[in-house]
Amino acid sequence: MNQRSNFTSKIGFVLAAAGSAVGLGNLWRFPYLAAQYGGGTFLLVYLILAVTFGFALMVAEIAIGRKTGLSAIGAYKALDKRFGFVGILTALVPAIILPYYSVIGGWVMKYFFTFLTVDIKVVADDAFFGNFIGGSPLEPLGWFFLFIALTSIIVLLGVEKGIEKVSKFMMPFLAILTVGIAIFVITRPGALDGVVYYIKPNFKDFSFTTILAAMGQLFYSMSLAMGIMITYGSYMKKDNNLESSVRQIEIFDTAIAFLAGLMIVPAAYMFFDGSTEGLKKGPTLMFVILPKVFGEMGSTVGTIIGVAFFLLVFFAAITSSISLMETVVSIVMDKTKLGRKAACAAVTVFSLLMGIPSSLGFNVWSHIAPLGQDLLTFFDFISNSVIMPIVAFFTCVLVGFIIKPKTIVDEVKETDGKFKSEKLFVIMIKWIAPIFILGILGFSVAEGMGWINV
Ligand code: PHE
Questions:
Q1: All domains of the chain, ordered by start, with CATH?
Q2: Full-prediction pTM beyond 0.85?
């Protein structure tokens, strides 16, 4: 076993984990889900889940990592042989996410270059996104290949530390720009209805799928149930306060998601006059709405903001895709005899092949719609709404009944003997979270199959 390096500063851990957490999940995924699932209803469900569920799971995962000093595959097995399969399941998640994440990364690059080179009126036009994605299949494929290639070159050269440094410097700008754009949007005439839609819960929009979608989003956005936080935990020092680190990561991640929603959902509401069809644009929402918002800023300001915004989003996306690829590469290296280069090449080829259907699903394969979803949404659904809840369920069972919550509580207390939310943690991880996850999965399947109608 080689010695694991540790994070040198306390804030270093929080920043690194927050860096993994903040990505396209906050900027691209959260707003479209909120728009689709009833705005305020989704927001409320998400917030409740974040402070209860998200908190308990993140504490458990980081503590498992710190205690065992292993990454997910080894950690589950080390805690209990029978739970080795959970480690394998967690390993599947980044392998499914990386390809379609890179398809979206490609779209982000396309938008950056278009804002840079073409008049903003062209991008703000209604037909622009549709023509890009539904025109020649080669164009979106080309951008996707480019994004994957960049990710893989960075991972191969081992220069991700450099990229991450740049990105940490860029992140605050992204946050500031998001606040600025959100203010611009909510001060538009007529935006108020959209803001109300985004913030005020409306229980007629409520369904079990809303909770499932919010739960999947929580896992995705906070990098839970995919082994990432276990790995981060394995690098964390004992004198680093686990509980307060988790709170800080959560607050940061949720704040960015909330602001991204405030920037996109009211604008979408306004542009589509509150029509459900417009609000259900799904993965394409950000790309359809933001150019219109920037277009309203006038051509010079709009172009500058557009270029800056998509450049910053590109950084947020590439750091996430690097850490996804790193994770998959190290699993392949652990499980096979391949060296780093060969493993990286294998993962790149796999991701290229797996990503092609997601890209073509908006194009020549749009007739293939498993569960009524386009292919990208389908892969996203399988990883976030099926595999991740299952992983989270078994993690709760493992912690709640096999190794017992006390093991985790003791690990949290290593730093200063305190665990403020100990009671909340124990009751969540042992009872509420696992029962809730099973219930929601069950109801959602029943709803999807049309057995019940809520
Ligand atoms: N949490 C990231 C996001 O919100 C996604 C991600 C998952 C990044 C896993 C890295 C690893 O976009």
A1: 10-448 (1.10.4160)
A2: yes
